[in-house]
Fold this sequence. Notes:
The structure is a single chain. By secondary structure, the chain is α+β, with helices and mostly antiparallel strands. It has one domain (11-67). 43% of the residues lie in helices and 18% in strands. The chain contains 3 helices and 3 strands, in the order βααββα. Strands 1-3-2 form a 3-stranded antiparallel sheet. It is globular and about 25 Å long. The chain starts with 14 loop residues before the first strand and ends with a helix.
Amino acid sequence: xxxxxxxxxxxxxxxxxxxxxxxxxxxxxxxxxxxxxxxxxxxxxxxxxxxxxxxxxxxxxxxxxxxx
Length: 68
């Protein structure tokens, strides 16, 4: 008997760490992304121990809610 476990984690359940990695998701330069992060204009972003983290699920859900 074998047990098969499906990977139910999608790419949107990912947390992206650092302004350098977050910038492409925002469509901005690193400097522009950092400014948006520091200004609190990125939903799903949080500064943890001095490093920016972006929860992609929350970030993308913002657009789905706004379109409805």
